User: Fold these one by one.
Assistant:
Number 1:
Amino acid sequence: MIFVTVGTHEQQFNRLLSEVDRLKQEGVIRTNVVMQSGYSDYVPAACEHYRMMTPKQMEQHMKAADIVITHGGPGSIFGALKEFKIPIVVPRRVDFKEHVDMHQVEFTKHLHLKGQILPVYEIHELENNILRYEDRIRELKSGFQGRENRKAFVQELKSIVDRLLEV
């Protein structure tokens, strides 16, 4: 199962939902897809979807998922890492009216350099990341520390958020 979350930010993230839905409709994705669609107005045709989920439901879906695809929000990314999943991260962008600034792109770049996520900066890159997920994970495994690195991750996250709030 693939679990997709766009978080709870009040702006749409149709770009991610429509691309995953397209890949499912075209048979590129052959497994079940569950989406948390948030404030998006795109209605998936081929994927199970819920506007919002409780924290417990989110945790259950992340645990059950073979692949987690998430926006670039720290809460969703950390939720996947907590379940020992290396997420595919598609950051929201201001130029698509998905967020108020580019902080998700910056946060995604930071985590990518640490080897903790698979980033997708352009939506056409998503298909390859899904199809090559296992290969991509093997490439990153040496840098992924899971729970052992939680304290360092939280400290680094706090530092990034503090820097972003200073702007």
Number 2:
Amino acid sequence: MASSRGSDELSHCFSFQEYKKSTCLHTWVIRDFSLLPVRSNIMSGPFSTGAANGGKWRMTLYTGESGANCSLSLCYDGSYPVRAKCKAWIIDEKGFNINHKEMPVQHVTVEASLSCQLITRSALLNPANSYLTDDIFTLCCKLTVLESSTSTVACTLGGQLRGPDLKGDLSQLLTDRQYADIILTVGEKKFHAHKTVLIMRSPVFRAMLMNDMKEKVEGEANLSGMSAEVLEEMLTFMYTDAAPNIARMASDLLQAADKYDIKRLKSMCEQELCTSISVDNVVDTLRLADTCDAEGLKSFAACYINVHITDVKKTTSWKKMAEEEHNLVAYIYNKVILNYSSEDGK
């Protein structure tokens, strides 16, 4: 007797909605804030999220008056309406992010902007509140533009289809010695790895293992200048494109990524260090960025120093750098000149 499906068989269906989006973080430094006239609008320079529509954005600050709120608007200059959202906050004189504001998703046009109320002008100017640093007002915004959405539907019978897990498989490959063909040694610890992965992920390993160098012939490489823990994290990234412990070891990992020319990992470390920068560590961060040729991090650290120069100059690390590394001090002051020049040219 031929078999047939029962009418009560369950078909499990899924639908997925996915939005393509672009995001940027913009920091606006306003000098001599107390000199700005009341009830006036000032506008930042233009910036972009990199969205496909190519529209430009500007932050606009309404300075308010003594007892009234200052307000912030995100003004859009583009050919087509977009859907966007924004988070904004103030950076106080200690470098803390305060007074967070959220502007939810809405349609934005040239005529309709994102906006929020910030804080009263009198509160901003009150020294006891520490909102300003040497009369410098620093505003940040994280702007997200939703570009388009796609919808897909998938149906499976008898449970969810399980496909290959490339990241998981490569992670397992890292811990499985069966097919390893090279040993990386740091101190007393040895890591079994695969030449193909190392060659594809690092130009330095490629040169080491494809030319007739000692490491290629002997199948073992002694690595210096890093700890076993850092090498393990670097290998994890090379196999899985993830660095789960980056927040804890970003400085050491940046040096390793620079040494072995792993560009994506280097960029990730720069971004991580930017998020944790402070008055106490900014000089050391600048020196590290200079050593590792990390220009993005170096520029960010120099701009941070310019904004918080009064407090930074009190630190031991600044005094030591001012005595020993005149090139970095010159770099910081050149950043000030470039910033003022770009503002004057607007």
Number 3:
Amino acid sequence: MQAKSNQWNNNLAFLLAATGSAVGLGNIWGFPYKAGENGGGLFVLLYMFFVVVLGLPVFMAEVFIGKKGKANPVSAVENLAKSSNSSRSWNLVGYSGILASLLIAGYYAVIAGLVINYGFISLAGFGELDPAVVYATEVSSFWEMTFWFSLFLVGSGIVVGFGIDKGIESAMRILLPMLFVLVLLLVGYGAIKGDMPSALNYLFSWKADQFNAGTIQAAVGQAFFSLSIGMGTLMAFGSYMPKNQTVSKASVIVVTADTGVALFAGLAIFPLVFFFALDPTAGTELVFKTMTTAFAEMGTLGQFIGPLFYFLLAVAAFSSMISILEPSVVFVSEKFSVSRFKAAFIIVVVCFLLSLVSVAGFNVWKDVTIGALDNPFEAMKYLADDFLFFWWEQEYHFL
């Protein structure tokens, strides 16, 4: 039986789902490390500028397309193209978004699995352990990494399989409040025990000589990725939007919440980084090496703050992964007239295979270079970014 078009139970449900999609590892893991790599305050300023000038309008446009099209991303674009007498080939925009979401899921699940693994490790405390050795040990095991990302992926697939009401909406009602409380707790701890003045100075001051093309590109990419633009998610969620809900008002609320969480994530992490005289430019390994050093320095208290931090990351990752899977699942369900659980199973298997490639990039294929890229994991990220940029460019012309 073909999947019927569902609808959120109320206006709050869309806000929770869209915010859950936007607020993820991109905010709590990605934003701080990219800020660290790109000059701190200048990156933050550019990020906020592009969120308002580019991110918000495109966010509203994607939600509007979904609301008007009332279908999966591919069909929604087709419906709008047909109604405006445009070429049906615009459905390539929908297909590229779905493909991008699958590629993102392929490496996102691996990072999320590593986060869960670190959560359990932190329960025992890092003590005298060398963070670099711990990280190298954990990523060297192909099967251990596969176990953790599989656990995460299956859990996400089950929630999506239950559908809009019993699955996504119910999950977001629990996850989002939990996420906001955890963020505030960690910011409060950073303000009391960390070096908050240095963190504020780092995040909100900048020098003109830091301005360059690389920082601009990083800020634009972070703004779009953080808002889930180009993945088909917003179109899918927009298609379930109640008729009486205003796209512009809902979009402003979600974008504001997403940006706020990103800034708070920086205020949770950098006070500890500066207090313990650690490196704020550690890059992608900031939460796995730098932060574990901070937790070890805390002693017994680190056995509480550490798990709390990684639990926050896991919650953020789970809320986003549910949203990343949704466009592909609803497309398969509607296109091939299968149940959501069957569609979710198919998509989870595809993501599992892609994730295996990503995991291999950390260990068995870590020395395999693909062009100028270090390993298959980096290649997966690069390919996903390419499809996202294709989506953004084509969507701009479509609108």
Number 4:
Amino acid sequence: MSGTDLPRLVWRGLATWLLLSLLGWFWAQPLLGWFIPYIEWIIGLAANAYRAHVSLNGAGAEANLELQMVLQQPLALSAQQTLKPGIKLTVVHHVLHDLAPLIVEFSLLLIWPVVSLRQRLLLLLAGIPAAFAVLGLTTPFVLLGLLEIQLQQIALYYHFIRPEPWILQWLYFCEMGGNWLLAISAALLCVRLIHVTRPSA
């Protein structure tokens, strides 16, 4: 890539990112709706003490992903305080935060220099399972991290400091830009995969 190509690539990247962001803004519900069973499945694997239900509420820019968790077994907050089965906890997360990593990933895949349309299509196809991986590592655990914050607050109400689990650290990582880092890494992995398997494309 020559020095004169770089500014053009940057402008293409900004335009692509803006276009995908607008699509995410207006079509957040149908786009993320495809992933809800997958998100619920991962949450069920990661937190089997609860029965999880994920839904989309609101429309457009006001849409939120809502997680309702019903406790299936007693949960000890301290030696004196235990949450009983049947208690329902609810957390919400704005859908644009969940779509942002996918927008970053596909923006990179759409502007990455290729030598043929076939290679571009292969790159975008590789991006689909990568998108599932990125979303699976971010959204379910961000929702569970928000749930853990609620449990921390309940414990503090009873004057008990609950040990901080790893999922809170992962929530902080994702919310401070780690989700974008995962998306960029996924896009670069797709690029590497296509270039390795199709060197003459």
